[in-house]
TrEMBL record, chains A, B:
<comment type="similarity">
    <text>Belongs to the phosphofructokinase type A (PFKA) family. PPi-dependent PFK group II subfamily. Clade 'Long' sub-subfamily.</text>
</comment>
<dbReference type="Pfam" id="PF00365">
    <property type="entry name" value="PFK"/>
</dbReference>
<keyword id="KW-0324">Glycolysis</keyword>
<keyword id="KW-0479">Metal-binding</keyword>
<feature type="binding site">
    <location>
        <begin position="215"/>
        <end position="217"/>
    </location>
    <ligand>
        <name>substrate</name>
    </ligand>
</feature>
<keyword id="KW-0460">Magnesium</keyword>
<feature type="site" description="Important for catalytic activity and substrate specificity; stabilizes the transition state when the phosphoryl donor is PPi; prevents ATP from binding by mimicking the alpha-phosphate group of ATP">
    <location>
        <position position="188"/>
    </location>
</feature>
<dbReference type="InterPro" id="IPR000023">
    <property type="entry name" value="Phosphofructokinase_dom"/>
</dbReference>
<keyword id="KW-0418">Kinase</keyword>
<dbReference type="InterPro" id="IPR011183">
    <property type="entry name" value="PfpB_PPi_PFK"/>
</dbReference>
<comment type="function">
    <text>Catalytic subunit of pyrophosphate--fructose 6-phosphate 1-phosphotransferase. Catalyzes the phosphorylation of D-fructose 6-phosphate, the first committing step of glycolysis. Uses inorganic phosphate (PPi) as phosphoryl donor instead of ATP like common ATP-dependent phosphofructokinases (ATP-PFKs), which renders the reaction reversible, and can thus function both in glycolysis and gluconeogenesis.</text>
</comment>
<dbReference type="GO" id="GO:0015979">
    <property type="term" value="P:photosynthesis"/>
</dbReference>
<feature type="active site" description="Proton acceptor">
    <location>
        <position position="217"/>
    </location>
</feature>
<dbReference type="GO" id="GO:0047334">
    <property type="term" value="F:diphosphate-fructose-6-phosphate 1-phosphotransferase activity"/>
</dbReference>
<feature type="site" description="Important for catalytic activity; stabilizes the transition state when the phosphoryl donor is PPi">
    <location>
        <position position="214"/>
    </location>
</feature>
<dbReference type="GO" id="GO:0003872">
    <property type="term" value="F:6-phosphofructokinase activity"/>
</dbReference>
<protein>
    <recommendedName>
        <fullName>Pyrophosphate--fructose 6-phosphate 1-phosphotransferase subunit beta</fullName>
        <ecNumber>2.7.1.90</ecNumber>
    </recommendedName>
</protein>
Length: 555, 555
């Protein structure tokens, strides 16, 4: 391992706050099984999450391979004891802890495969395709230990999809003579990692591929991968803000705060933040979809509660809304697809004649929307001419619809207070915070484990660290066959492999616990304010409620 | 002191996070001078901050009174050793630490004036006028120790202004037989406190009045009142978020984040957050006003820097904007006053003929504004029919103006990148956080000192704790004559007393330091991420940069 090689580009411009510096100096514990001699052993053969008959066709070389477990061992181990050439890439949105995955991988190579080289592909998968990389040395890696962000090598959202792109990836791993590649990413990126592993194996390349579960959204998880990294820290940061806003609401007694939280596909973040803070209303997208709620239903639900609280003397409250809410509402999806059709072919006349082309329910919904949202739907389109749903500020939209409904009730003598809304979106603030102790330690173990898996010749696995309810030293370590997480989706007439996003399960322990508490939170003010993430002290090692409930439910 | 009196209404519904509980148990240190026997001694006579000839007319009984200092003493002290009846009120917006002022006052009475009663007026000054109060007992006060928010007795923005209102206040203090009243508030509230003190003294009532300096904005300070409480915590919370967003910006490399920060009148928060995080651009309202910058100037300043950074390969950045920015721009003030005039008397025709009534510069400015802002200015008016300046989302307005300018430069071949903006407003999140160690300790000392000042017969003073660069035990304690902070303003043909807001001084140490650093921050990426407030560990007792620089500048 050359720690002062010619490619060493340790950024000298990094500056640190006192807390960042102090975090840098904190040493990282490893699970006991990784601290001593270990072997990597195979479990029973695996299948797929769905449609194994199709998965086996898509992954003929990898399908069915067993998951792996790291167990205490004595020499001779399954480890190579040889130097390795490994690449690593960060894929997709930031999540606190990514740097520690790289640190863990780096330290594995330092500890167990002396003389190895680690290459960091820059800017995400595009870095693999363009062979843009930096050699990661001690000087380069160390300054990012326990630090937030992905700025060590940055990330990107490109995908390796076409035959040409796979060829580029092959060229890169051949050029760098890579023994292995670690892909740190979400469900899509890990699917991609598995396709790369299959491709390399199919072509008899020596390069193995291991994935690592990253996403603040918490929607990449399974029995063997209990949580994705970043979720813990992001939720803690959002909950700090929500808790502060709650105490503010109770102190002023005159505002309803509508808080939108990151998490487009699944509502795990919103649910976890609800456990941490006890808001009056929490909208869970999966429940909205399951019950086919309309926007009017949701508006009424909120408005009813505001009226009930007014009767109890409370003219304030806090409402949590998942970022992806409107994607969960079937009628909105219908309206948007009709709008896309109309916008593509027709003229939007000022007189509104175009609206006659909408189906009756869609027309009704369109008229129900606040004017600003109507305009946004008609005016702001993406490069393909489609409505930009992601740009809609759902919290403001709901706030306005609730206000309109309250005004109408006031006119009927059903509501007498003055409604004042405040809207918030907590998103980017949570993706790059200093990782919590949990994410710091979890990521370090994930990265170290990825090194061990590669070193023992594994490919197509996702690094899996378990028993997370126990102290770090008792954590279990292994790798789960990526194909075992796969199902297929039909796109453009073809089967595509996908790792299904783990949604909030309405029959799961976390949602059920929430459902049993929310009525009390709604009318009584059970606010709790978790405060800022602490790195030392009694709260420093708290786990997320979601994880604890899921661990308990499985026990 | 009845700790279980009939009026004890300790809220049993309060719930705590683990961190809140642990903060509750933390004991509060007192400055050494308050721990032992002490005397309160007078300094030299005082004058006024401006127009003493008018201040003496407005405060004939109080003008010129000396400031007071608490010094080590032996019995007989100036303390009464008798039980007291004291009222306390929280006035205006929340600031972290308010509960500890009350705790300090309460503990003073417990320690030094046994048998005393403390009444908390509910919902701000309206509570005084309506005699709405709660007796504060040990059980009532204790659960709020070191906790954020003002929810112990809540706050309000009413003012005691008219002769009828002063009469109501008199009735209340007579009814409760109050020896003293502590007003916890900002510049306005402390002016009001001084008027009450003058009024009570003029009418030979025994009720003394002591103020305490509260505001997260940091614009209530003087030589003897080095900082208002809440500023420290609020800036730390905002800076945590800004730091996170910065690392995100550096990691993705594709966003400019426009961050608006609370602070309507003065830009202290924005300046302090700049020191804590090193953003690429920081707009300081006071500098904008002093240089009579136009919106176009500010837009160009930002746009120029974005272009320069693009040349250096940076297509991202972070820009801090004070909430009150547009109040500092003379041309905007002019436009708004013209709009108010026109909106009051004329019809806004769709053809835009009404715009001819605007002066040429105002017309130009109006056309320069983004359409959404134009509409907001015309449509959203307060109950008096005036334009609602406070509702304008300055960060979005600037972002849009910058984008428009960049598009125009792109058309001229001067800018080639794609600009993507993200906007944030950090406001309510910072007002009710768990108070930092500094604010916890500072507030406790302020409250304890207020008790001592009242007990020694003082009135019309603001509780003053100094030598804040030293450890708590070495802090100095006293009271500053509120009249000495006063000047007059002419309103409706009359002189009104005001405590002038302490603005960012362009010749002061903090701004000068900032000005010497900002060019480097602009082009090099010197981001630092302060991370979440810590209550233990190496960063737990950090002071604000602003305070340290001001202390240094005075030394």
């Amino acid at each position: 391992m050359s720690s002062n090689g010619a490619t060493d580009q340790g950024k000298t411009t990094l500056e640190y706050s006192e807390l960042q510096s102090s975090r840098l100096r904190v040493s990282l514990p490893l699970p006991e099984v990784l601290r001593n001699s270990f072997n990597v052993i195979d479990g029973p053969p695996s299948s797929a999450a769905g449609n194994p008959d199709e998965i086996v066709k898509l992954f003929p070389n990898l399908f069915g391979q067993p998951s792996a477990e790291v167990v205490p061992g004595v020499t001779p181990t399954t480890m190579s004891n040889q130097s390795l050439k490994i690449g690593v890439v960060l894929s997709g949105g930031q999540a606190p802890g990514g740097h520690n995955v790289i640190s863990g991988l780096f330290d594995y190579l330092q500890d167990r495969a002396k003389g190895s080289s680690l290459y960091g592909f820059k800017g995400g998968p595009a870095g693999i395709m363009k062979c843009k990389y930096v050699e990661l040395t001690t000087n380069f890696v160390y300054p990012y230990r326990n630090q937030g962000g992905f700025d060590m090598i940055c990330s990107g959202r490109d995908k390796i999809e076409t035959p040409e792109q796979f060829k580029q990836a092959e060229d890169t791993v051949k050029k760098l003579d890579l023994d292995g590649l670690v892909v740190i990413g979400g469900d899509d990126s890990n699917t991609n990692a598995c396709l790369l592993a299959e491709n390399f194996r199919g072509k008899n390349l020596k390069t193995r591929v291991i994935g690592c579960p990253k996403t603040i959204d918490g929607d990449l998880k399974s029995k063997e991968v209990p949580i994705s990294f970043g979720f813990d820290t992001a939720c803690k940061i959002y909950a700090e803000m929500i808790g502060n806003v709650m105490i503010d609401a109770r102190s002023t007694g005159k505002y309803y705060h509508f808080v939108r939280l990151m998490g487009r596909a699944a509502s795990h973040i919103t649910l976890e933040c609800a456990f941490k803070t006890h808001p009056n209303i929490t909208i869970i997208g999966e429940e909205v979809a399951a019950n086919k709620y309309t926007l009017k239903n949701i508006t009424d639900y909120i408005t009813d509660l505001i009226c009930k609280r007014a009767e109890l003397g409370y003219n304030y409250g806090v409402i949590l809304i998942p970022e992806g809410l409107i994607d969960f509402i079937p009628e909105v999806q219908q309206l948007i697809s009709e709008l896309n059709e109309i916008l593509a072919h027709d003229v939007i006349d000022e007189g509104g004649m175009w609206k006659k082309k909408l189906r009756s329910q869609s027309h009704q919904l369109f008229e129900f929307l606040p004017q600003a949202i109507q305009e946004q739907l008609l005016l702001e389109r993406d490069p393909h001419g489609n409505v930009q749903v992601a740009k809609i500020e759902t919290e403001k939209m709901l706030m306005e619809m609730v206000e309109t409904e309250l005004n109408s009730r006031r006119n009927q003598g059903l509501y007498e207070k003055q409604f004042r809304g405040q809207s918030h979106f907590f998103g980017y603030e949570g993706r790059c915070g200093l990782p919590s102790n949990f994410d710091s330690n979890y990521c370090y173990a994930l990265g170290y484990a990825a090194g061990a898996l590669l070193d023992s010749g594994k490919t197509g696995l996702i690094s899996s660290v378990g028993n997370l309810g126990a102290p770090v030293e008792k954590w279990t370590v292994g790798g789960t066959a990526l194909t075992s997480l796969m199902d297929v989706e039909r796109r453009h007439g073809k089967f595509k492999p996908v790792i299904k996003k783990a949604m909030v399960e309405l029959e799961g322990a976390p949602f059920k616990k929430f459902a049993s508490l929310r009525d009390e939170w709604a009318l009584k003010n059970r606010y709790i304010s978790p405060g800022p993430v602490q790195f030392v002290g009694p709260t420093a090692n708290d786990l997320s409620h979601t994880l604890m409930l899921e661990l308990g439910a499985k026990a």
